[in-house]
Amino acid sequence: MSDVIGVGIVGYGKVGAGAHRRWVTGREGARLAAVCDATPVRRDAAREENPGAATYESYEEFLADPNVQLVVVTTPPNSHCNLAIQAAEAGRHVFVDKPFAMTGDEAGRMLDAAAQHGVVMHCHQSRRYDGEYRALVEAVRAGRIGELVHVRRVWSQYGMGWATWGIEGFNPTWRVQRSYGGGMVYDYAPHLGDQVLRLMDRPLETVFADARSVKFSEEVDDHFSCLLRFQGGATAYVESSNLNRLPAPHWYVAGTEGCITAEKVGGPIQLLAEGMTEPETLQPVNALDELYDNLLAACRGETEPNVTPDQLRASSGLIDAIFESARTGQAVSLG
Question: Whole-prediction pTM value?
Answer without folding.
Answer: 0.96
